Amino acid sequence: MDPCRRGHRHRADVLELAPIICDQVEYHPLLGQPELLVLARERDLMITAYSPLAQGAAVREPVIGRIAEAHGKSPAQVVLRWLLDQPQVAAVPKAASHEHRAANIEIFDFELSDMQRGAIADLQRGERTIDPSWGPDWD
User: Of the chain's two ends, which shows fewer C-beta atoms within 10 Å, N or C?
Assistant: First the structure.
């Protein structure tokens, strides 16, 4: 098993053994990952957010809908922009159609305000949407 999949408390130990350039983890507005973001900045580590829309749960949040409406964007575009506004964070959104792929790219023609970014960050409530039976005991 990938040692980085064992949770935050083991990640620092792994980094002492071998260099890691990128760690792909579940990260979205409902699952904040604050300790990992600090570690990423300290160790110059990239974080790749998988399931960045929380399997659709994030885009159903009313605050994200209001921000999307204010910018003339979709809620998914707002979430992706919020993720990519963060240093050392990339995202891997699912895109089953050409329209979704195009929309995923069209996120650089607007900016979120500090207040909007904060409102999205405040949605964090430690909710995992991906928790396979073979996965680790997350911390």
Answer: N
Q: Name the DSSP letter for residue 10.
A: H
Confidence of residue 31 (pLDDT cuts 50, 70, 90): very high
Query: What is the 3 state secondary structure string of 30-72?
Result: CECCHHHHHHHHHHCCEEEEECCCHHHCHHHCHHHHHHHHHHC
pLDDT digit string, tens, across residues 84-117: 999 999 999 988 899 999 999 999 999 999 999 9
pTM for this structure?
A: 0.85
Beta pairing class for 46-50 and 89-92 = parallel
Q: How far is CA 17 from the centre of its chain?
A: 26
